[in-house]
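Curious: explain these tokens?
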Amino acid sequence: MPIHKFTFGSPGEASQPDAIKASFAEFFSMIIFIFAGQGSGLAFDKLTDGGSTTASGLIMASLAHAFALFVAVSVGANISGGHVNPAVTFGALVGGNISFFRSIMYWIAQLLGSVVACFLLKFATGGKVTPAFGLSSGVSVWNGFILEAVMTFGLVYTVYATAIDPKRENLAPQVVLQAPVGRPQSFSRQDNSMLQTWIRDALNVDDMARML
């Protein structure tokens, strides 16, 4: 049942079977999301000899992450709610739909799942390191901060309003609504341009519009 108000919960939640099961669901969902999303990027980069920074590479990155998120949310939706994102968990906490202690369990599981997925990718690809993201040339730290803040808010607001809020109407299944808002990082690698950043985000908006 929804909590409806902010609550800290208790440390004893860490030993409750449903909380443990939900945390493991977030852990494995995060592994699926990162492994499939980042793995697709690594594979495309190898097949095209560095083509992941091109327009077609950005399209593939958007599609790969969207479908990976669709699967990750699907497998965890009935157990943990399918957050698969610390920001979504934070939104559920602020909205009073999850306790503070369970949120911590989710965050730990999500972060550990991401780390494990990166190690699995490194092993599966023969030592390739998952790429780190940085600001493109001409993009300041504050530019990046504002863009990430706005888009993260949009993601959390959409997921909360359509899948978490107990007062919502049954508009559509949760997994359908979360899939199109899945997006890779807003900023490409150091050698990408600002235009590529906007292309990537525009593609995600277009995906959302077509899904609706």
Remarks:
- The two ends are 28 Å apart (CA to CA).
- Residues 11-205 form a domain with the Glycerol uptake facilitator protein fold (CATH 1.20.1080.10).
